[in-house]
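Support case: zinc ion complex. Customer-provided input:
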Amino acid sequence: MKKIIIIISVFFACLVFISGIFLVRHHHRLNVVLITIDALRWDHLGFMGYGKDTSPALDNISKNSFLFTHVITQANFTPPSICSLLTSTYPGKHKVFDFGYEISKDVVSIAEILKKKGYFTALISEHAAFDIIKGLDKRFDLFEISGVEKSEFKEKIKGFLNINKKPFFLYLHLMSPHADFKFLPVGYQRLFSPEDYFSQTINTLKSQGNKILPNVLEPGINDISYYLARYDSAIKYADSQIAYLLNMLDGKKLTDKTLIIISSDHGELLGEHGYYFHHRTPGMYEQEIKVGCLIYHRNHIEGFNTIGQQVESIDIMPTILDYLKIPKNRDMQGVSLYPLIKGDNNYEKKYAFSFSFSRGSVNHVVRTDKHKLLLQHGGVLSLFDLSLEESAQNDIYTTESVIGKELNLVLDDYIKENFSFRLEEHIQLSEKEKMRLRSLGYTY
Ligand SMILES: [Zn+2]
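Agent response - structure generated as follows:
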């Protein structure tokens, strides 16, 4: 009898062991699709409580996803932010401070780590200037960029999936909510009625000191409501692109075998603080640096799980690796969110950092769940209480000296560790690159 019990126990132990290997392997061989939607305001998405139907596809998958609602991006503009996301390092480490900078050879991207594990890695971007982030192309097996107006998105996705190399890592950057919205395809141009938006003439707004991105304006259309409605149409277009990708994955029976992560490189100001369709301001406002992240894996994540704790974009890469059971690289500065997803709640990072750099002016933010300290160029410090409504947030640096000093020390350490060099404007852009950036609406 004893023998039988031992044999049965050994048999079950083996079964548990083998299924354990299977589980590890299974996750290890998962495909990964990481999507960033440029300049997306997460409070304009249906599942985030927005009143308009901007995101049916994302609303649908959010029902079985983990949603992080407070993701602080490591910069308020594209090049440093996406390099932080892809390398899990702060901008001072990857050293991409703007277009024209080369990504540091000392940092490893998620694409390279996954490539070593046998993944086919691809970047498909609708941002036409991703190649002006120097060295980024070398990190991927396939690097395809094009302007949003001729993105041939469907053909590219179809082409990519037809390559049929598995497992794959696809990093997809969608561009439509980034102003100017002029390319929006027929059917997506006027999905929302301007009457439902804040109305004011452009001239009045300008005379009140508001800054409106010049290339967003169209001849003869003088009310801001038209452009605000266009922004939401552009979100719905990005949502339709994701719907297309999800359908394609489904058609290839890949959905259950693919981990999908959706986030943004930064947000956008839509009238707050006197800016329309701007980010990259020295104020580093919440609308610019706070985004969300949705993690979807069909049949493995059940229910709508929302986590409101503050996390950082650099945490996304270690989370993906943790999910795939691939060891974390020691140079990564982010922390896996997987414990939070599993309900362990032992994610213990208290501070988040963000960075802004424009025309030689460097600004830094350190943020907790409750407060935000802003260090502007020239050493000016401001402290804000995030528990108050935005309109009631005054600079309390002089009155809240304890919190102000604590955050100042934390920021000092961060700057010493990450920016131990003089950051100077040394963009090496050719005239051709400058022209391309100008044609995208940037001032270079
Ligand atoms: Zn961007």
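Residues 120 and 165 are 6 Å apart (CA to CA).

Case will auto-close in a few days if no follow-up is received.
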